[in-house]
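### Sample
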Amino acid sequence: MEIAQSIFRVKKLSFHEFREHNYANFQNIKDIRICPTTLQCSIFGRSRDTGREREKQQYRQKEKQAPCKEPNIQEEMIHLCCGKKKKKKKKKKKKKKKKKKKKKKKKKKKKKKKKKKKKTEYSNSSLSLYFSISLLLSLQPFR
């Protein structure tokens, strides 16, 4: 959880104001409590504030530049009517161990040598034999 997200804004309203109130300023309403004695309502939530967004961006930039241990922040939720405080301890995130990626050794591909096709070479005697047979066959028709 980021520091900017852990800050809660508290709004104090009377019961009638609470009914007519426009919640456009609040992003997520975490809790709404009505005090039974004074009938005042306390809204716990995060408000949309440009200043807060700037703080978030600055915090993120710092986090990217130099990763350091997060400060131990306790969130305080104050019930404005009764003055009661409710403390929430921040949960520590377990850091995941980064697995070292094993570098795969690149295997060198062996280039296959193309075998040259040998042209059939006929000796002079075999060539002469071939031609003589072909001539004989052409001259004499089959019976």
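Confidence is low (pLDDT under 50) at residues 1-10, 22-27, 71-79. This sample ((raccoon dog) hypothetical protein) is used throughout the tutorial notebook.
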